[in-house]
Amino acid sequence: MAQALYLLWFDSPGGLPDGFDFHGDAHVLANDLWLIRSDLTRSKLYHRIKWQLPADTPILLAPLDDNREGWPKFKGMEAGALKWLRSG
Questions:
Q1: What is the rounded distance in angstroms from the CA atom of residue 52 to the CA atom of residue 55?
Q2: How many CA atoms lie within 13 A of 64 on its CB side?
């Protein structure tokens, strides 16, 4: 499977657990908001992330089109986010 681009949000007040694995290349946009490129399907990626977090953690994982027209528009996010998208 070709790499897919995903938007991930989860509510993790304590930060990422030790050894957290995004199962792909990830870049932070803001606290608990990430872009991920992964070879996994949405379902497999969702479950592998979910299993690493406390059971009551809210999670959102959404696929994005990995081309310029499908990229999210954003402002005020962590440095390097647009560069990361363009490098993929």
A1: 9
A2: 20
